[in-house]
Amino acid sequence: MSLSSFVFLATVLSSSFALPSDLNSRQTAAAPNPNAPLPGWTFVGCFTDAVPQQRTLQEHNIVNPGMTPALCTEFCGNFSTPLNFAGTEFTDECYCDFNIQGTAVKVNDTQCNFPCGGDSTIDCGGASLISVYQNSNTGVGPIPTNKAKVGNFVFSGCFKDVVGTSQRTLIQSIPIPGVTIERCTTACGASGFTMAGLEFGQECWCGNQFNPLAGNVTAALTDCSRACEADHTELCGAANRLSVYTVPPVVSSSSAAVPHSSSSTSVAPTVSASTVAISSISAAPTSTSVKTGTTVTATASTVVIPITSILSSPIPISSIVPKLP
């Protein structure tokens, strides 16, 4: 056997009869980690978590010493209405929500560096830090939003509410089953109110103005980030935050400015043959045109009225002619 043939045979044999340890290493590298997030879930970043008042994800949570992203995403995606976001935190905690709350701040991903309780090769958030994954599987609803207009009500913004005091931003609470934007605005309107506020996903408040005792109630729009419990596609404020809708004031046509014009098409009272309209008298002569063509001219000392108009009018002359200074 030639030397080249011997080398070829040795190469073939070494590849065909690999050691079990080498084969196992290659298979492990090729296989996906079963503890990684389930298919359809994507890592979106590391976020702060204001424990415990303003959780970044608030709808559901579990604690499991063997926590992994696979376990957490399975939990959050297994409800009758799958949730949009899942997050692991502090090694063994899992949280779910339809929206990332506005109190959260995205930080560098390397800050979420606590090993998962069920797999130390994967990170599960940190102390007051949460590793967040988004669900893009079929059947998952849209991220909840505000509505620009509902009936006669229009969205006005997000405002603070002082819970636990008598100085609530909107003074009237209306208990209604299954709070949504539509139901709350309808209930407030039916009770004679022009303002409706939705809070904490499940509360409806009404009023005609903000309570003056509440002080400055302006809040960032992103603060109102909690989904309505009865409609997960809508936003219903948040903890101590109101999504406010108002009925705009009606602008009366009589309050609109009327341009001065001698044309008969301008907005002016209709004058019949038996009446005469007299404009207010000023220092300078003025002229007012009416639909009958009757012209009334007035100066500071004289008033000229066609005698035919006076004779045909049942109104006494004294009530028509103003007293001159």
From TrEMBL:
Q: Which PROSITE patterns match?
A: WSC
Name the SMART domains for this protein. WSC
Keyword list (alphabetical) reads: Repeat, Signal
What's the protein here called? WSC domain-containing protein
| Signal sequence coordinates | 1-18
Cited PANTHER family: WSCD FAMILY MEMBER CG9164
Where in the numbering of this chain does the WSC domain appear? 40-136, 152-248
Q: Provide the organism lineage as a comma list.
A: Eukaryota, Fungi, Dikarya, Basidiomycota, Agaricomycotina
